[in-house]
Amino acid sequence: MAIKSHFKFSNSQRNGIFLLAILIVVAQAVYFFVDFSPNVSHTKHEEIEYFRQQVDSLKQIASEKNIPKVYPFNPNFITDYKGYTLGMTPEEIDRLLAFRAKDQWINSAQQFQDVTKVSDSMLTVLSPLFKFPDWVTNPKPKAHWVDYSKTQDQKNYASKTYAQKQDLNTATALDLQKINGIGEKISDNIIKYRNKFKGGFISEVQLQDIYGLTPEVISRLLNDFAVKTPRVVEKIDLNSASKEQLVTVQHIDYEIAHHIIEQRTLREGFKSFDELLLVKKFPVQKFEIITLYLKLN
User: Fold this and answer.
1) 199 and 263 in one domain?
2) Under DSSP, is residue 247 helix (H, G, I), strand (E, B) or coil?
3) Chunked in runs of 10, what are the mean pLDDT values of the chain (297 residues)?
4) In terms of CB atoms within 10 Å, which end of the chain has fewer, N or C?
């Protein structure tokens, strides 16, 4: 008896199996012989090194930007925290604060070392950052207002007496133009400045505020003119004035007013107007004009 075969295929089935076998073989060949990995360009070693250096440079720049920058400062105002960040010891900071508590001021790097006892190496690091007020670094004569009556220009001719001088608060532009160095523009500036205030000038010192007037021209002007009818102002008590009152004074803004009150509190009141020169950011060159509006009780 013949055994019936279970693997008997028709011609179409055999053709299909044969085609499938060919596809499997082709797929295996493709898998083994074709590179399917990403097409990575082979960058030269020099280019890789160049880019690495660029990245390192950018990291260095970013690192330097993250380092806190220390700006110039007045060593008289170093606090506990500020001293700590500068690298000072608690003892050195305490010596400085004790010195300041006596209402004394440090005016040089050497004096800073004498008071705090910091090392030479620490002083070398800190001293380039010290910023003292202009009145310390560029001391001027005690008289802040220039005595124009004694300038060389005045010596060239006899000065008029006070009675002979004309009132600066009533002078016309034509009167002012008689002075050598004062033309239509500068005389107009003088009149406009005077008219900003009801009553005109308080003092001759206000001439410093007028654009175009040089010290030499002011000297010649004051030979013929004086403020004979000064504007009356209600002076503000420096030791009790609020910030809002202080900012009404010429050349004092809110920042300066804040520093004035801060210094007033530190000193437990001002004893003289000269102590204003120790106030942070105080406009020293406008000292005489500012004090026209102030009083001390």
Assistant:
1) no
2) coil
3) 58 76 79 61 65 72 56 79 83 88 81 90 86 61 47 50 91 94 93 93 92 90 92 93 93 93 90 90 90 91
4) N
Note whether residue 61 is domain-resident.
no
| b (16+ CB within 10 A) / e for 179-214 | bebbeeebbebbeebbeeeeebbbbbbbbeebeebe
How far is Cα 253 from Cα 222, in angstroms, rounded to an integer?
30
Considering the domain architecture, whether residues 272 and 203 belong to the same structural domain is answered as no
Of 187, 206, 226, the domain-final residue? 226
In a domain, 213, yes or no: yes
**For residue 235, with 0-12 CB atoms within 10 Å meaning exposed, 13-18 middle and 19 or more buried, which class applies?**
middle
Strand, coil or helix: 259: helix
What's the whole-model pTM score?
0.48
Query: Which residue range(s) make up the domain with 98?
Result: 75-132
CA distances from 154 to 147, 160, 174, 179, 213 (A): 11, 10, 22, 13, 16
